[in-house]
Input
Amino acid sequence: MLEIKNLHVKLEEEDKVILNGVDLKIGAGEVHAIMGPNGSGKSTLSYVLAGREGYEVTEGSATLEGAELLEMEPEERAASGLFLAFQYPVEIPGVGNMTFLRTAVNAQRKARGEDELSAGDFLKIVRAKAKTLQIDAEMLKRPVNVGFSGGEKKRNEILQMAMLEPKMCILDETDSGLDVDAMKLVAEGVNALRDAGRSFLVITHYQRLLDHIKPDVVHIMAAGRIIKSGGPELALEVENNGYADLLAEAK
Amino acid sequence: MALAQAKSDALAARLDGLAVGGSGWLGAARRDAASRLAAMGLPNKRDEYWRYTDPASLTQAAPMPAALFDAGDEAPAFDGIDAVKLVFVDGVFDAAQSDDPALAGVEITHLSKADGVDIHWAREVYGVLETRGQTPVHRPLATLNTAYAAEGFLIRATAKAAKPVSFTYLHRAEHSDALIHHCIKLEKGAELTILENGPAAARITSVMEVEVADTARFHHIRAQGRDHERRAATHVFSRVGAGALFKSFTLTANGCLTRNEQIVELVGNDGVAHVAGAAVGDGTFHHDDTVFMTHEGQRCESRQVFKKVLMNGAVGVFQGKILVKQGAQKTDGYQISQSLLLDGDSQFLAKPELEIYADDVKCSHGSTSGAIDDTALFYLQSRGVPKRVAQSLLVLAFLAEAIGEIEDEAIAEDIRSRLEGWLQRHEH
Output
C-alpha cells in the first residue's frame, strides 16, 4: 500500500535535516504504529506524506499503490486515497462543518471521475456515521472545529476519515489531549474502518492507544530514522523502559 | 486661506451648469443647502476627513468617463427577489422600465412631484438628517446633493411592506454624472426593505436619509455594480427611534473609487443599528467606508462589520467611529474592520475610533489585516479540496460575518453567489 524509501527531508527555511533516511513498507490491511521521542520526526513524516509546504525532500520516495505521492498536490494525494488525521485539527471560522465535509467528499469523487453525491444521499450517510461517533447535528452545523473540545475535534477527524473512505490513514497523535473515554470512542471509530483494503499508520507517544487500536507492526523512530521494528511487544517495552535503551542500542 | 480658496474655487467649478430647483418646501430646503455648501466649499485631500481618499475625481467639474460594463450572463443583483422595481438610467428615473410605484402601506413619490405638495413628514427629513450629520465634520458632497439633486424618491411606510422597494441604477453613458437623493420615513411599527443595485453612472453622488420611528424596522441592502471605472460618493444618514431597527449592508465588487459614508444616530432607547459591508477589489480599486455611529439613547446596540478582500494593488480604507454621548448608558457597541490581502501589493488603511462620555457601556473594536491562513488552506487541501476552491471557501468565510448581517436568507444567498462568481473570475 504505502512504501517509503530512504526518505530525506529538511526544512525549507533553514538548513535543518528532519528525516534522515526513512524506510517503511505498509501492506494492504495492515496497521503500523510509529513511536519515538519528541523531535524524532514523526509528525514531519506525516506532514511530508500529506504534502504540507515548508519541507524539502532531498532524497527518496514515497508511493501509494505505486504512485509517487511526493509529486502530487495535497488534494491529489487525498483523492488517491491518503488521509491524515491531524494532531491539531484546524479551526476554520465561517465554513460550516457540513459544507466542508460535502465539498471534500464531492471534490474527491470528482477527481476520481465519480458522480458527486446528491445533498440527500450525503446527508443520510453523514448522519449515520456521525451518530456512531456521537457527533450531534449541532456539531455538524457549527463552523469546522470552532469551539469544539479536544475530544470533539478528534472525533470530527475520524468522521472525515469515515466519510472520505481513504485507503491509507495516518493518525498523528490522535490520542493526545483525550481522556480515556474519548480515546476509546475514537479508537472504536478507527477500528470500525479497519478492513482488508485499508491500512493505518498510527503515530503515538503512548502505548495506551495501541491497547485499543491493535497494531501489526511497531516502529521506533529516532533522529529522523526508524531504528527498530517489531511486534506489539515493542510498544510495551517502550512503555516500561522508555526510549533510552533502544536509542543506546541503535548507536 | 489658500485651502479655503481652493475649496471655494472647486465648488464654483463643480456647480457650473447646476441650478437649485423648486419654489415650495423642497426649493427652500435646497436653497438652504446651497448656502450651507457655499460656506463649506468642497472637500480637499488636505482635509483630515479625506486623508486616505483623494476626493479630486469626486469634486472635479466633469466626471472622468467610465467605460460601460458588460456583465455577460450574470443576472443583475436581486433579480429573483419580488420587489417594486424603480429604474434609473444614468441617474434619471425611467418610468417606462419601472413598476407602478404602488405598494400597500407605502407611499412612493418622485422628487419632481413633491415640491408643490405639502408633504409634512418629508419636510422634517429632507436635508434635515443631512444637516444633523454635518458635525463634527463637514460632508459637503452630501450638502451638494441636497441642494442640487433633482432625482430620487420620497418614501413613507406606515405599515409592514409586503415586499421590498428595489432601485436599479443603470449606467448607459460614459460621461454620465448622477445626483440622487432619497428620503425615507418609517412610521411607528412599520417595516420596509430597500434594495439598491447598479453603478448608476460614471460618477454618482448620492444621499439617502432614513428616519426610523419607534419600533419600526428598516433594512437596506445594496450592490454597487461591477463597472470597473465608476466613481461613487454615497451617504446614508439615519435616525433610529426607540426600539427601532436599522440595518444596512453593502456589497462592493469593483469600481475604481468608492466612498460610502454611514451616519447613524440612535436617538431612542433600545434601538439597534447594524451597518456592514463586503468589498472585493482587484487592481485599481479604492474603497473607503466611513462610519459615524452616535449613541444617544440608552441600551442601544450598534454593530459595524466591514470586510475587504484586496489584490493587485487594491486599496481599502475604513474610518469608523462610535460616539457614546453622556447618558447613553448600557450602550453595546461593536466595530470590526478587517482586510484579507491576497498579495503583497494591496493596502488596507484603518482608523477605528471610540469616544465615550457615559460610564456604563460596553464597546469593542478590532481591526486586522492579513493573508489567507496557510494552515487552514492545507487542511482543506489535505481533505481533497482543490487549492482554488479552498481559497474561495476561506475568502467567503472571511466575508461571512458581514454577509451574516443580511436577515433575508434569499438576499444573502444572492450576495454570496455574486461574491463566489467574483472570486472565480479573479483567480489569485
Notes: Chain A is about 40% helix and 30% strand. The interface with chain B takes residues 50-53, 73-75, 77-79, 83-84, 86, 89-95, 99-100, 103-105, 107-108, 111, 143, 160, 164 of chain A (CB under 8 Å). The longest strand of chain A covers residues 2-11.
